[in-house]
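Convert to structure. Protein one:
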Amino acid sequence: MSTQSNPARVVLVTGPSGAGRGTAINVLEDLGFEAIDNIPFGMIPRLFEGEPLTHPLALGIDVRNRDFSLSRLLDLHRDLTRMTDGNTSLLFLDCRPDVLVRRYSETRRRHPLAQEESPEIGIAREVELLRPVEQRADILIDTSHLSPHDLKAELHNWFADETSQKLAVAVQTFSYKRGIPHGVDMVFDCRFLSNPHWDEALRDKTGLDPEVQNYVQADARLAPFTDRIVDMMTFLLPEVETEGKTHLSVGIGCTGGQHRSVVVGEVVARALAEKGWRVSIGHKELARRGIATAGSVVLSNSKRTTE
């Protein structure tokens, strides 16, 4: 594939079967992408022959592609990234195996990697097969707790209104007990702040509750910490945008991912939104517990709105 002048954006959409790839392709098409699902790898170079693309392109790829192989997918991502001057994103839709099993039981479909066996076997095979792709992903969305509407909102956070502002910022809070999320560009550790966990009245609450927010905000170190994060991001984001990146993911972690990181994440996300950046915020640990929906919120003009 040869490099095109002024290449349009390309998004490769993949992930385990049942994680929401079809929904994502439809949403991207509604956002103005030319969307093609399950295109054979051998036909992809033809899409870039002749005149440059005039619309962004979304390609849905999974194990049902006729000539699918792990190496071909990784090579495609590498080649398109080079060909489009870095304007290619690998979007990986992840999902917990138990949720995938439930989705297959509801639809009664056979898994493409276990036609004559149980869906559990096929899911385990596919998750293991796609692990290197997950690690390479530019954007990682866990759909385990997302409804189709929530997934649409998250995709809007990443891909809508690119003509007005190209860079989207995703703030993710997480628990260090479960490890740093894949795909984050930078990480901030707030475990030094006073921990509401040791207050029995606050232990079962979250950083979305006013009582916890007040507790964490009483720590004199919070304001200098968040101010420095926002100052650094205010410097970095224009440079990142000038470099041509379309998304930046920031991780903020504490021990349990329930109290301090949530408070810090909310403060940082809102401050960046007030400065005019398009910001989404998701709380991985709260989403895992069913307390909040991961990544379905956009902060804009100091107001929280769902799309």
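Protein two, convert as well:
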Amino acid sequence: MSDTSKTTPGPEPFRVADDDLDDLASTLAKTMAEVRQHGVILDRLGSEPASAEPRPADDSPAAGAVDCEPGDGPASVFILALGGEAYAVELTALTDWVNYLFLPVYGREISTTRPWCAQWHEHPEAVARLHALWLAWQQLTDAEASLSGPSTWHRDHLDQALVHLRAPDGPFAACTTSPPRPNHRVLATPAPEQLGLSA
């Protein structure tokens, strides 16, 4: 009886074309960003205290207010309502979404008429607008959302956010748009006295 293992060829090695490697890396980065986002959502859900009390109606004074009592979670998931470690965790998750999904797909070229700042996380208005955009994206691209969810997100959320974020007089107006000469500056906001809100 002869040994057939010497004559039977082994399986061919799996090869990926060089052109497909970039797509594969991009897909992997997006998948990893989504996994991190789901982890943040699970952490957020796990840390929220279970409460039998009904939530206040939208028109009540307590609706949307940040609860400052120790041990209680914030009344909102919006990043401006968070503080300390909760804010840092949310900003990290938002940064992953901005870097791995938002900018690669919707970043477009930087110019004086469409500025962007690499240090966007230091611009409070940009953080607020991007976080609101991300929250809407999570809701409208979820598997439970309707099939028109992504279209709604583009029309009602993305387009409006980009108009304000990348406007020549928007939050990045004072930041240099030339990559070889980066300049980052957060514009001053009116003092409370100027707004008629003296302390």
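Residues 49-71 have pLDDT under 50 and may be disordered. DSSP finds four helices and no strands in the chain.
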